[in-house]
Design brief:
407 residues; mainly alpha; 83% helix; 0% strand
């Protein structure tokens, strides 16, 4: 048996590893779509729709997932979610047409949709408010590690075997992780005691208070446009590097490790900054992150040198991570504990519509402009500027207590 202190670190470590695997699964299609499009003869529009299938399901099931975590706890819901997305990943390797691939990616998206809310609830169950940003930053940094490791793993598996085998391997690893997570997250007495102390509020009042809170909608808009920026880059940069810059798949995969590797450090640094210097002042970090990201995405899009372009991309990735962690920390720190899952699910559900629309939006821009990536990158920069503008409307300093429930 783990002690209480040991258990919370083991749990956050296990959640971190699951999210590493989850992000490898999530982004595998961005690289695999290159050989898949050749095999299936797909246009840019069709490629965008396949990539977006994940995000449609991801968005539609966020709210349901958050509600389930609030009602049934993190252990059962999170372990089941990892199993579902891993099955979807494995099935992706068995399909023989674009429709089947889109359906399999939708299953993967539905499973992964539960994880952001579930991870936040698990953190509120095991960490004090003064430690939540750092705990969440560790969990969020799994995304950067997933991107960094995934670039090599995915390209290596495709080059050595096939895109189908790549999906089979990732799915099998995920199934093993779901079983391990279930046994690691055994209930402890302190958790049930803490839950008993949470004030009982009717579902109608709880949801009503969430919907009436203006901060809910401002955070949603910020994350919506951030997702357009982030997934617009992640979905189309692999094709840009290979088709426009003339990089090989392996070379592109190696270079693509750099931005998320720095992103890992940035997540941990931002978590410390949020707890230490930006407590209840998350808007400032969001404004800084969006402004700097817009500048460096513009520089990347206009840079001929590949190493320098990746350097600019790396800087933009660091500051996009600052926005992401600030969004989730704001939810954990400024909403009641018994609403964190639902709030995260609602905000992420609506914001992920940006992730869903982004691959199709950029694909449509490329089709309409004869593959002009300069115009596509301009759309992405404009969305980053919108994030900064919206963040300025946040309260400068939130109240010292979480958002109160209202009748």
């Amino acid at each position: 048996m783990f002690s209480n202190i040991q258990r919370r670190h083991v749990i956050i470590g296990m959640l971190f590893l699951c999210w590493v695997v989850g992000f490898i699964d999530k982004t595998a299609i961005n690289i695999a779509i290159i050989p898949i499009s050749e095999e299936f003869g797909l246009s840019s529009d069709h490629q965008g729709m396949i990539i977006s299938a994940f995000f449609l399901a991801y968005s539609m099931t966020q709210l349901i997932g958050g509600y389930l975590v609030d009602r049934f706890g993190a252990r059962r819901v999170l372990s089941s979610a990892v199993a579902v997305w891993s099955l979807g990943t494995a099935v992706s390797g068995a399909v023989s047409n674009a429709v089947g691939l889109a359906a399999a990616r939708a299953v993967t998206g539905a499973g992964e949709a539960v994880f952001p809310a579930g991870g936040s609830v698990a953190i509120t169950e095991h960490f004090e408010k003064s430690q939540m940003a750092r705990a969440k930053s560790v969990l969020q940094s799994g995304a950067s590690v997933g991107f960094a490791v995934g670039s090599i793993v995915i390209t290596a598996l495709i080059a050595a075997h096939s895109w189908q085998m790549m999906f089979y391997v990732l799915g099998g690893v995920g199934i093993c992780m779901s079983i391990a997570l279930f046994f690691v997250m055994k209930p402890v007495d302190d958790q049930s005691v803490a839950k008993a102390k949470v004030e009982k509020v009717s579902e109608k009042k709880r949801i009503g208070a969430l919907l009436k809170n203006s901060l809910t909608w401002k955070i949603t808009l910020v994350y919506f446009f951030t997702n357009i920026v982030f997934w617009g880059l992640q979905s189309w940069l692999p094709s840009y590097w290979v088709k426009v810059k003339g990089m090989s798949m392996v070379q592109m995969g190696a270079y693509s490790m750099i931005p998320p590797a720095l992103g890992f450090i940035s997540f941990l640094t931002c978590g410390w900054l949020l707890d230490r210097y930006f407590h209840q002042k998350e808007k400032y970090l969001i404004c800084i992150g969006s402004a700097v990201s817009a500048i460096f995405i513009y520089l990347m899009a206009n840079e001929e040198s590949i190493p320098l372009a990746f350097a600019y991309l790396s800087v933009s990735n660091v500051f996009l991570n600052a926005i992401s962690i600030s969004v989730f920390v704001s939810i954990m720190k400024h909403f009641p504990q018994n609403t964190v899952g639902t709030a995260t699910g609602l905000i992420n559900s609506l914001a992920q519509l940006g992730s869903f629309a982004s691959p199709m939006l950029i694909g449509a821009v490329l089709s309409a402009t004869n593959q002009n990536y300069g115009i596509a990158f301009s759309v992405i920069v404009a969305c980053a500027v919108l994030v900064c503008i919206i963040a300025t409307t946040f309260p400068a300093v939130h109240g010292k207590k979480p958002v109160e429930q209202t009748a």
